Structures are given as structure tokens and as C-alpha cells.
Amino acid sequence: MCFDLSMKQPIYLFILLLIIFMGGMVLSLTSGSINVTLSDLLIMLSSNEESLQHQLVLELRLPRALGAFVTGAMLALAGALMQVLLRNPLADPYVLGVSGGAAVAAMLAILAGLSGLLISGSAFLGAMLAMLLVFGLARGHGSWTPHRLLLTGIVLASGWGAVINFIMATSPDQVLRSMVFWMMGDLGYVQSVGSGYVFLLVGLLVCLPMARSLNILTQGELQAGALGVNVNKVRITIYIVASLLTAGAVTMAGSIGFVGLVVPHLVRLMGVTDHRLLLPASALLGGCLLILADTAARTIIAPQQLPVGVISATLGVPLFLYLLYHGLGRRP
Predict the structure, then answer these.
(1) Using CA atoms, how far apart are residues 292 and 82, in angstroms rounded to an integer?
(2) Which of 238, 236, 255 is nearest to 203 (CA)?
(3) Count of Cβ atoms closer than 10 Å to residue 88 Cβ
(4) Shortest CA distance to 330 belongs to which of 145, 80, 60, 22?
(5) Local structure of 113: helix, strand or coil
(6) pTM for the full predicted model
(7) Per-residue model confidence as pLDDT tens for the chain (332 residues)
């Protein structure tokens, strides 16, 4: 099954995604342990009257929904770029170990008693360290190929995983819950939402002018080189942008699986293969899906909250199996 919303009719695709976005935002702002009616929401948005519901919606739910959107958008955009870079339909933002480096740094910060922006800052520095390690080791003394990059990332990701297990095994019980929630992905303490939108905007501004080169690169390196594409420059740019997007997303919300893997394939299943549309459409759809997943995480067992990574995995597994049955959309 393929929904043909490709370049011939791009407006319909983006109208659909904008409708999903607006519906998801309304659902996120009105749902939770305390339900808010649509009429009350409209009154709150149009007035400055202070009330408990006003604080709940505008100071808690709205920043969280905006954080969910930009996190999902960054992961989906990074996933689409990684699938082109590695020419592998199973590639996702975490395949090169960036999230592992972030997780180790964040857990050490939690263990040291830090909180808030200090944990986020530590996670970002850890992600940057992981990015530089993979980049340096993959280049080595030989050629910088997708296979070499992938193998280096997988090995380093396994190493980060071992360090994470060691930290969790030796940490006191009182900090383990915070570590586990961070590892599963948690939007409950999202901060610096504005920086996430800066990362997303810069990523789109850098990658969209390269869309033609990305289209050609999916056909193979030799063909891309023959058609005038500077393959090494495009590869390095993709790697840096995708890694920074992943670092930004992990810094904001921890590790949230399946969004970056599944969303680009969902867009391809709609008939979109041109990266001029695929990249922004993936970002929009990824943001919408994470808003819906976060809303479900807040409401399923309200007033308790689930890590959003649990919901994204629950939704991602059947979606991925569906995509696998249909040949993973259209291979990058």
C-alpha cells in the first residue's frame, strides 16, 4: 500500500501533517490527569487570567508538547540523514553511538548529584565526545567509507553500553530511578526548548540545499561522483549535522527509540523519495508522533507517567513490522 503524496502534490502532504500537528497539540494540552475542555483552552490562550488550569496548560503542558515536537523532529531528520549516509534502511540516529556517549556523561552527572541544565550539558558534551571518537577512528589511515563508519559506530556503541551497565550496577538505589527514566526517554524535565529549535532550523537550512546531492548519493557513490557531487564533503556534512541533531535530542529527552528509524520510511511509504520533501516531512511527522506518544505516556495510567520511550517503542515495533512487510517503504 502506498499513498501517493509525492512531488506532484506536495501541498496535500504538508496540509495533512499540519492537521496532525494541530490535532496533536490540542490533544496534548487538554489531556492528562486533569482534563481541560477545548472551550477552556481557547479562553486560556486568549486571556491573561491566572488560574490552576492556566498554569497547568501554559507552564507545564505547552513547554512539554513543544519539547516533544522538536525532539521527535530532530530524531526523524537525523534518521533520514543517517539512512542516506550509511545507505542502510536499518540506520537510526543512535547507530553510531552518539546516544551512548551522552548517556554515560548524563549518568555520571546524576551520580555526582547534579540536576537540570547540568545534566543536559553533560549529556551534550558526552555526545560530542562520542561523535569525535567515531569520526576520528573511522577515518584512521584508510578511506572513510560507510561500512567502516558503521562498524566503528557499532563497536563504540557496544563499549558505551558496557560502561552504562557498569555505572548502573555500581550506583546507589536512590539514583537508579533517575538513570532508568533518562535511559528510557523522559520529557518530564525538558529544558532549553529554544535551543532544540535552533538545532532543527540549522539542520534543515544546511541539508535542504544539499537535497539534490542526497538524491544522487542514494544511487551510489560512483554515480554521484560522476555527476559532480563532492561525495566526501557531503558525507562529512551529513555526519556532523545528524550527530548534532541526535545530540540535541538526547540532551533534551534522553534515548527515545524507533522515531528516527521508522518515520523516514513512513514518509517514503507515502511516495516521497525526493529529499527536498522527505527531510521536512520527516521532521514534521516525527514531531507529531512524539507529541502523541508523550500524551499517551501522561494519560494511560494518570496521574502516574510513563517514560515516553516506552510508548514510542510500543508504537514503533508494529509500525516497523508493517514497513518490513511492505519492503521498508522505498529504500534510501
Answers:
(1) 24
(2) 238
(3) 16
(4) 80
(5) coil
(6) 0.89
(7) 444 444 456 788 889 999 999 999 999 988 877 878 788 777 777 777 677 777 778 888 888 999 999 999 999 999 999 999 888 888 888 888 888 999 999 899 988 888 777 888 888 899 999 999 988 888 766 667 788 888 888 899 999 999 999 999 888 888 888 888 778 887 877 767 888 899 999 999 999 999 999 999 888 777 777 878 888 889 889 999 999 999 999 888 888 888 999 999 989 888 888 999 999 999 999 999 999 999 998 888 877 888 888 888 888 888 888 777 766 545 55
Residue 309 CA to residue 83 CA, distance in Å, equals 21
Fold designation for 10-325: ABC transporter involved in vitamin B12 uptake, BtuC (1.10.3470)
Residue 242 one-letter amino acid = A
Contacts with 280 (C-beta within 8 Å, 6 or more apart), sequence order: 14, 204, 208
Q: Please report, for the chain, the start and end positions of each structural domain, with discontinuous segments joined by +.
A: 10-325
Q: And the C-alpha cell for 168?
A: 548502573
